[in-house]
Amino acid sequence: MQIAIKHITNSIDRGTRARVIPASSKSYGGRWTQDIKTANARQAQRAKTVGSVLRSVASIVIWAVAIVMIIADLGFNIAPVLASAGVVGVALSFGAQSLVKDYLTGIFIVAEDQLGIGDWVDVGEASGEVEAVSLRTTQIRDTNGTLWHVRNGEILRVGNSSQGWARTNIDMPVPYDADIEHVNSVLMDAAKEAIATDAIRDHVVSEPEIWGVEKVSGEALTIRLSVKTAPSEQWAVARVLRLALKQALDNNGYHIPLINQSVVRSAPDHTASQQAGATSIIPQDTGATEG
């Protein structure tokens, strides 16, 4: 039993060490490297948790079997005891099935490294940074500072933005009659200059890409620019890029178009104006002004 548990924990160890992140470099496009510090911390947490659970279960099973065998050797009739244990087990399974579900799901979450402390995740009702992971619950802090305690049995899917790599997609609206090729050139040059700065240079792992026109409307064309980033750094990179792209468009005479709006003014009530002794009559013309 102990050999099997050790084999399982060693498998968890190898799975954690296989995790990689982009290496920091003086320019974007750096190679991938192994995240030793984070991997060791996650390995210790996962192996310790799963090993503790398996050892506890193994100890309970071994002691239960040993006690039953000792009672049988002493000459006692263990049939009623086993029957009672079966009834109690069925009752507990119905009464604590949600608790059992939470613990079983928690074991798989930890063993499969679906999430860990410091990861930014979306589990459905709650999304944010993981602050604590146990076998029964997961604690997630959202952007508003609210700490969510989520039962593991209620987690049906996990979206993890902190594993491997991430991507930021920026949609920039430009005038409908703009020269697309020139706009693409302006956006690409601005993105490369922004990525070369110290603010986000170490967080970008590939060259920016222009994916083309994403949306067409009566007022604008929306062009999408995409950049691959390090885990959990996509939001910081996006903020820097948006400012750089906006300034580049302004410097080249491209302004983000405003949505066309119509303001309708209704005609005044002439009957009420005459009764009030009005000396002038406003024409009954309902006009629309383009904004």
Automatic annotation (TrEMBL):
SUPFAM superfamilies: Mechanosensitive channel protein MscS (YggB), C-terminal domain, Mechanosensitive channel protein MscS (YggB), transmembrane region, Sm-like ribonucleoproteins. Residues 99-161 form the Mechanosensitive ion channel MscS domain. Residues 271-291 have a biased composition (Polar residues). It is a multi-pass membrane protein. Pfam families: MS_channel_1st, MS_channel_2nd, MS_channel_3rd. Its main location: membrane. One of its GO terms (molecular function) is mechanosensitive monoatomic ion channel activity. Keywords: Cell membrane, Membrane, Transmembrane, Transmembrane helix. Residues 58-97 form the Mechanosensitive ion channel transmembrane helices 2/3 domain. The keyword DNA damage does not apply. GO terms for cellular component: plasma membrane. Residues 269-291 are annotated as: Disordered. The chain crosses the membrane at residues 52-72, 78-96. Belongs to the MscS (TC 1.A.23) family. This is Mechanosensitive ion channel family protein. It comes from Rothia terrae.
